Amino acid sequence: MKKNKLILIILASLANSFQGHAVSLQQSVIAARFYDTEFIAAGNLHDAEGQKRYQGFAGLLPEISLTGSYYKQDQPDASYAAGIKRHNYSFNLSQPLFDPARFATWKRADAAADLADANYMLAQQKLIQDVSKAWFSVIFSRKQLATLQQEMKAYEVQLHKAQKAQQIGEGTVLDVDDAQASFDRARAEMLSAEDDLNHAGLEFNRLTGLPAEEIQEADMRCLFHPQKETMQQVVMRTSQKNLNIIAASHKLEESRADVISATSAHLPVVTLQANYGTNWSRAENGNVLDEVFGSTSKTKNTYVGVNVTVPIFSGGKYLSQSFEAVSRRDQARELLEDTRRKVVQDTKASWLGVNNNLAKINAYLRSVDSAQKKVASTAYGKELGLRTLLDQFNAEKDLYKSRQDLTEAENNFVQQKIALAAATGDLDYSTLNDYACQQAVSR
């Protein structure tokens, strides 16, 4: 309950601080950390699994206990000293000296706790990746919508011009039909872009609890620069830092500990045992004879010894468990290699995606510049009678298509950049500083 109250207080503070202000990517991720229930659940699981480390190590430490008892023995048919009261206490200590199973349990628990750490970092990485994807999706959906709105308005103007030109005999039905078709297509695409923007905003709100309207629009040009590392350098870092590989390696360590545990069933177990205690007994209606013959007595016991247990035969159960553990260890080894290969493949794909989309961005920038010049020259040519209204429509189509392609390439570049950071194990809260060069655009 205290933890929930703390989260509510933090959320309230975040909501007050963000209200009426532009929300940055860093602020969005911080808000999601305390709002996204999937991530909060992952944190609780991490805390629970982390206790296994201490539980496993506790099996190697001595166990100390205090025991005691009190009872009364009655002999109704006896004619003399029928009742005897007895009570005792003892301190007991047990310390394993040689017990491979306990050692294996500790190693497995340690590996399980390390796996919990890796899984929690994966959950954190996934949260950053999801929020970043949603945040950029809102921004690029806005840019795409703005382009389509401009395109629709331009076609609306051209449609009115074509209709007027037809009325005065300077235009054709083909010009009107083409303008109408272009206007209708642009309107349909604009409605689709509005729907995409709404979905992106809902996803952002689901993750962070913040309104997508407060996302600050920014200049993205600072992000579009080539990779400083070669593919081989990136793959090498991925093999060392990728969290999926690290998690799979901890699973392998767990299975190796299981092999030790299964093998230990064939080995002896040596344990140190020690205890110290006192026993009292007192007969009812006692006399001097009871003192002499011991019906009333007090004794102290001290015991120190070593217990050795040697397994001899169990029907082949432990031998079969050893074979099973070895097979599961081999499975974990192959799964680790499979994970490594898939991660390397994903890393290469993301590296290529970043570089290819950067090349596309530069190409589309030149395409937009060329298309703008073509629109201007086509409009001038139409005034001279060298170009038709249909030529002007086609030139404007090329311009807006190039702008849409540019926005799509920019979005793909950013998403591939985030995916590459995740693959190399570099996507964390400090990575968000890579996007801090953005300058907010006045709204």
Could you write a compact summary of the structure shown?
The chain is of the alpha+beta class and 443 residues long.
Attribute tags:
10 helices, four-stranded antiparallel sheet, disordered C terminus, 12% strand, alpha+beta
Structural summary, described in words:
This protein is an alpha+beta fold and 443 residues long. The chain has helices at 2-18, 25-35, 37-58, 100-167, 173-208, 231-241, 243-264, 288-293, 317-384, 389-423, and strands at 63-73, 84-98, 269-283, 297-309. It has a four-stranded antiparallel β-sheet with strand order 1-2-3-4, with no helix packed on it. Helix 2 (25-35) crosses helix 4 (100-167), helix 5 (173-208) runs parallel beside helix 10 and helix 6 (231-241) runs antiparallel to helix 9 (317-384). It starts with a helix and ends in a 20-residue tail after the last helix. Residues 1-5, 7-12, 14-20 and 439-443 have low confidence and may be disordered.
Structural class: alpha+beta
* Fraction in beta strands: 5-15%
Largest pleated sheet: 4 strands, antiparallel
Number of extended strands: 4
Write the layout of secondary structure elements.
Blueprint: H1 2-18, H2 25-35, H3 37-58, E1 63-73, E2 84-98, H4 100-167, H5 173-208, H6 231-241, H7 243-264, E3 269-283, H8 288-293, E4 297-309, H9 317-384, H10 389-423
Antiparallel strand pairs: 1-2, 2-3, 3-4
Helix pairs in contact: 1-2, 2-4, 3-4, 4-5, 4-7, 4-10, 5-10, 6-9, 7-9, 9-10
